[in-house]
Amino acid sequence: MFVCSCFGVTEEQVKSHADAGACTPRQIASACKAGTDCGGCVRRIQALLGRGACPRRQSADQNEPVLAKLPEAA
Which of 46, 55, 54, 41 has its CA nearest to residue 9? Predict the structure, then answer.
């Protein structure tokens, strides 16, 4: 299925770029130009990346540090 009709970029291509390390819409745009013309596909790209197309994002979310609450200054 096409994600970006302006440049003919498919869902599989976006997933492939995500597997190669492109984890943001801007990185996807750099890899294949998707989202750089009319911009109508940017939300679809964001949705694909948010659904696990980017393995690096998943591992970052799982390893996110929990910050301790700092004492308030007097």
Answer: 41
